[in-house]
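User: Can you recover a sequence for this backbone? Please restate the input before giving your answer.

Assistant: Of course. Working from this structure:
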């Protein structure tokens, strides 16, 4: 097999010539794979000689299958040799000649590749360093959330429903006198004031008593999903029971119940510490994003459309998985938001282009700085993870597969790359 390489804009074209012997071997394999499909009088099925089949069906009877065998094989061999070629999709194959001079075959493989990146000056980047301070209000919010989680519901008697109560209701909604999908439910719990229902719905439940029935009129927001947006609906409601949250007192006993601390002050101090740690991680992640965005803006990359489309497809797939975990299908989400798949993809285009450019710029930085994960780096990371899991490094890593090791190496490389950016940046 011989080939030549031609570099185009964001593409590489290989012109490949397979020798007579290589083409014959591909045809032999194609015959062995497909001979069982043919029946000829006087021969057992699957035992008809190749020459007989070629005389009956033509010399090229196995050419299509032979091409399916030969082209991927030799294209893969070329990529193994050409380490600097990074395809971003399957190649476009064009068969130029079969049984040419000397019985050879010639084809071209044109493939979109990662573009060249002209890296901007990343050693004098000016970015504003983000800071997130923990306030007393932040701590109080966490305490209130913990208090709510530890609350219990108690029955309310002798008074109507108030804001903050949790009521159990049946409701049946109609628009223009006709019921609509999703507008009916029984024994539904509603926390009055939570804002989880259509605006105006919860407010009209305030003042109702157990056993009372009432018609509630609401108007769906204009940005609601298409079938209901802007329409007026009437809900027939029956209220069954009223409960209220009974909150525990914030004291030492509460701290003992919800944490490993003996005093409320210790528990409160731990909440602040964890919020500070969370804020530090948030600020660090945002700083890295700002640095990468700044380098990307200063860099030149001619990104091919196919890379952007691939990134958009990946983003749609990610959304599909997230919706699936919430019990929703992508088609239902599109219907709910009143948009088509094409419109969704169009909304992702700008973000996809930025993501692709940032990734290419980071890869070029890693290449230019010759950043790698050494065995010492990997051993240190495994030791760190093992200590967290309270295991020995040997015990922790014994079942590690190549995928996990590759993930850890990539994580180390990324950390080193951002360390380079931070070390050279001017933080304001």
């Amino acid at each position: 097999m011989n080939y030549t390489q031609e570099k185009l804009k964001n593409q590489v074209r290989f012109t490949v010539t397979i020798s007579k012997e290589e083409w014959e071997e591909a045809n032999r394999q194609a015959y062995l794979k497909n001979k069982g499909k043919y029946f000829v009088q006087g021969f057992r099925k699957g035992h008809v000689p190749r020459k007989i089949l070629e005389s009956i069906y033509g010399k090229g009877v196995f050419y299509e299958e032979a091409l399916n065998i030969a082209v991927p094989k030799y294209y893969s061999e070329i990529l193994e040799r050409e380490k600097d070629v990074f395809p971003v999709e399957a190649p476009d194959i064009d068969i130029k000649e079969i049984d040419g001079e000397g019985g050879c075959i010639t084809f071209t493989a044109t493939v979109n590749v990662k573009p060249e990146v002209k890296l901007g000056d990343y050693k004098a980047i000016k970015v504003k360093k983000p800071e997130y301070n923990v306030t007393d209000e932040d701590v109080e919010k966490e305490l209130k959330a913990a208090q709510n989680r530890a609350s219990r519901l108690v029955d309310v008697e002798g008074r109507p429903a108030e804001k903050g109560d949790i009521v159990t209701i049946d409701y049946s909604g109609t628009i223009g006198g006709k019921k609509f999908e999703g507008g009916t439910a029984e024994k539904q719990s509603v926390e009055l004031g939570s804002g989880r229902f259509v605006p105006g719905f919860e407010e009209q439940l305030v003042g109702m008593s157990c056993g009372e029935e009432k018609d509630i009129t609401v108007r769906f927001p204009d940005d609601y999903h298409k079938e209901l947006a802007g329409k007026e609906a009437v809900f027939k409601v029956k209220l069954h029971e009223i409960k209220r949250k009974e909150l525990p007192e914030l004291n030492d006993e509460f701290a003992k119940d919800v944490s490993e601390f003996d005093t409320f002050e210790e528990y409160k101090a731990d909440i602040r510490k964890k919020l500070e740690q969370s804020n530090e991680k948030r600020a660090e992640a945002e700083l890295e994003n700002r640095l990468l965005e700044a380098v990307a803006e200063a860099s030149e990359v001619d990104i091919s459309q196919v890379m952007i489309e691939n990134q958009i497809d990946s983003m749609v797939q990610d959304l599909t998985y997230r919706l699936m975990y919430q019990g929703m299908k992508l088609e239902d989400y599109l219907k709910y938001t009143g948009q088509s798949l094409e419109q969704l993809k169009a909304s992702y285009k700008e973000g996809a282009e930025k993501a692709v450019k940032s990734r290419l710029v980071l890869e070029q930085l890693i290449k230019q700085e010759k950043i790698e994960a050494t065995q010492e780096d990997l051993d240190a990371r495994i030791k760190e993870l093992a200590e967290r899991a309270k295991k020995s490094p040997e015990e922790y890593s014994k079942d590690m597969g190549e995928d996990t090791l590759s993930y850890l190496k990539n994580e180390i490389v990324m950390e080193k790359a951002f360390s380079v950016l931070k070390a050279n940046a001017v933080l304001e």
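That completes the design. The chain is about 45% helix and 20% strand.
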